[in-house]
Design goal:
single chain, 256 residues, Arc Repressor Mutant, subunit A, Four Helix Bundle (Hemerythrin (Met), subunit A), 2 domains, elongated
Length: 256
């Protein structure tokens, strides 16, 4: 079925989407640039206005552009965002497409790598930021788990930033958020949240010390040992065995 002026045709509006994605990927379209106006896009691609508007709607949902109908300046190209990835991971976890074991095993790899990179690349200023964060985590224990959890997340963000690998930063962030969504109820219902928070503080101070000493292997091992300790009891025996192997791979130990 061919699209008309009033109904978009996905076989043609995909051409517009592909053109914009390619332009961004190769640097022909940069944040702050403007796409041609709707009228110009109609002429450029030789397709109906409905198909152009559908393509722009999809691109907006992908957070690649911001578009306003009849804007003579054309849609605005936005900085590439991780928002769509966050939503995809959230949808996969909420529908069962990604389970806790999948996410934790990935985190064991990503967080260990982030710690190793941070130990090698951190600056004195970044180290000071980590030290301040660990102090804030301790202070947040008196404010409740929500505040404490936010400080915990910020620690990992600071570590990933110090490591300097953008891919590790992005995927680490989205998987940490997904794990917390899945496990939050269990944490909130825990009999002794204070003990859990103290355990986390001790772990983060140990990671901080390893990064300060530029001991990447120790920092990496600590990430895997800690994640195993937190989550091994919440996954199947088969997944627990894989997690244990990930710990042993970097010279760590697991409790029996």
């Amino acid at each position: 079925m061919t699209g008309t002026a009033d109904s978009p045709d996905d076989r043609v509006f995909q051409r517009v989407i592909d053109w914009v994605q390619h332009g961004i990927a190769v640097g022909e379209l940069n944040p702050g640039d403007r796409l041609p106006s709707e009228r110009e896009l109609v002429d450029k691609f030789g397709i109906g206005r409905a198909s152009i508007r559908e393509a722009l709607r999809v691109l907006e949902n992908m957070e690649l552009i911001r578009s306003q109908p009849r804007d003579p300046r054309g849609p605005l190209v936005l900085p590439v965002s991780v928002g769509p990835m966050r939503r995809s991971i959230a949808m996969l976890t909420s529908t069962g497409g990604l389970g806790l074991a999948d996410l934790v095993q990935f985190r064991m790899i990503a967080d260990a790598s982030a710690n190793l990179l941070a130990a090698a690349r951190r600056s004195d200023e970044q180290l000071l930021g980590l030290e301040r964060n660990t102090a804030r985590m301790r202070e947040c224990m008196n404010l409740g788990y929500a505040e404490f959890s936010q400080a915990d997340m910020e620690f990992h963000e600071l570590v990933a930033e110090a490591g300097g690998n953008k891919l590790v930063q992005v995927y680490g962030d989205v998987t940490r958020e997904a794990v917390l969504r899945l496990i939050r109820r269990t944490i909130l219902d825990a009999a002794d949240q204070t003990a859990l928070m103290l355990q986390s503080v001790r772990h983060h101070r140990a990671v901080f010390a390893a990064i300060a000493d530029q001991d990447g292997l120790r920092a990496s091992r600590l990430a895997r040992e800690s994640l195993y300790s937190y989550y091994a009891d919440h996954v199947s025996p088969a997944d627990r065995a894989i997690m244990a192997d990930l710990v042993r791979e970097c010279g760590g130990t697991v409790s029996s």
